[in-house]
């Protein structure tokens, strides 16, 4: 039978050379095959959408049929009826879940006055499992464009990386190339959130080195021309010291990227910065406690408690040595948030 | 190209087309179904498993060509550099094809070969991604995921390998009759 002959060696050598040529070309030129990619994406996107539509009910049917039914052969009719009813119940549960997801998403959109296009995830990543992307079943036809922010009921999911007519690829916020401008809750301090640490950890870098990031601080998007402001990103879980200054922190995103299903693409933002009102309320603010996060035993860098009166919206301003210049846009946002809340 | 009996050296159009179709279906199933299952530790890699099984049955030549073709499609469907998946799958198909003779002797050989292909292929993906772009995973995560992919491959191979072998016999038998 076939083994390592001269011909097969020749073929593999030719293919390897071809692969390296492609890699070099694409690496050097960047977007060398966008046209081909677009065509292939729209073709496969349709198939993926169909497969997902088909496999969801099939999975439910299989799960409803695996319930043991010892008298199936004696009461075929009853068994079938039973299975049909189970299927209906499973469908009902699925519809309830979807409706819940959708109303949660609407709630977040209403809080921030975002205009969203709801969509569902039809493919996760790529074949190699190394791309932190998902494909959704909404595209240019629904008003999507590249760089729009994608949210779900919990917060920021990522940004649109590419669109075809009816599908779009979302770059998740944990992608190593993802960088999103972020703002610390209740303050006007800016930084950037980057991915690359796996699905459940982000890196936040504060631009202002004189401010100490604390565990439990929460982040929202800062907003720019493409990105809407005020979308919840995550919560600081660990402060990493860089040269004695607590500028870098690990952030746990609010969104769990492993279980994404219903998402919304923000295609229009509010006229004014929504401030912090999109963030979920703190669980138990503990009014006389020194630090805002409830039940946090240690606060390593806390000079005195008077500076942190329980994380109220106006509490960010009296911080000593905290520069106020250069953040005019956010400065307008906080009074708006206080007025709306 | 059309040698006499030792046909395994050439690419049979029907086998090739059937294998390409199977692998393209696997590409779609991988991203739309398998990746959504949320399997613990990592994910089963349907494409690597099927490619390895086909290469074991049909030999290094088909394995390499098939791996390259399917890898290229996967590259075009992804956001990373074109050619990196083609490179990894081409090598996996070729290397697994080299042990096709041993695979006929014992059931352990296909199991080990497919498991190793899934694990090493996953590591290869991680390595090319970190060399050519930004590392999507840390080293530890990549190793855990590779081991998980290998174990999942061991689980599904006993079901898929006999199926593929039967399909291959059928395709070859039909061709001889024609």
TrEMBL record, chain A:
Q: Which InterPro entries match?
A: Cell/Rod_1 (IPR042177), Cell/Rod_MreC_2 (IPR042175), MreC (IPR007221), MreC_beta-barrel_core (IPR055342)
Identify the stretch(es) annotated as Disordered: 271-341
Q: Where is the composition biased (Gly residues)?
A: 323-333
Which GO BP terms, alphabetically? regulation of cell shape
| GO cellular component terms attached to this protein's record | plasma membrane
Low complexity: bias regions? 287-322
UniProt keywords (A-Z) are: Cell shape
**For the Rod shape-determining protein MreC beta-barrel core domain, which residue ranges apply?**
130-266
Which Gene3D superfamilies is this protein grouped with?
Rod shape-determining protein MreC, domain 1, Rod shape-determining protein MreC, domain 2
Among NCBIfam families, the record links this protein to: PRK13922.11-5
Its family remark reads: Belongs to the MreC family.
Name recorded for this polypeptide: Cell shape-determining protein MreC
**Species name for this entry?**
Parafrankia soli
Automatic annotation (TrEMBL), chain B:
Q: Which domain of life is it from?
A: Bacteria
Which stretches are transmembrane? Answer: 16-39, 46-69, 81-100, 107-127, 147-167
Per the record, GO CC terms? plasma membrane
Q: Which InterPro entries match?
A: Cell_shape_determining_MreD (IPR007227)
According to its UniProt record, where is this protein located?
Answer: Cell membrane
Which keywords, in A-to-Z order, does the entry hold? Answer: Cell membrane, Cell shape, Membrane, Transmembrane, Transmembrane helix
Q: State the membrane topology.
A: Multi-pass membrane protein
> Which Pfam families does the protein's record reference?
MreD
> A GO term (biological process) for this protein?
regulation of cell shape
Keyword Membrane included in the entry's annotation: yes
Describe the family membership recorded for this protein in Swiss-Prot or TrEMBL.
Belongs to the MreD family.
**What protein name does the entry list?**
Rod shape-determining protein MreD
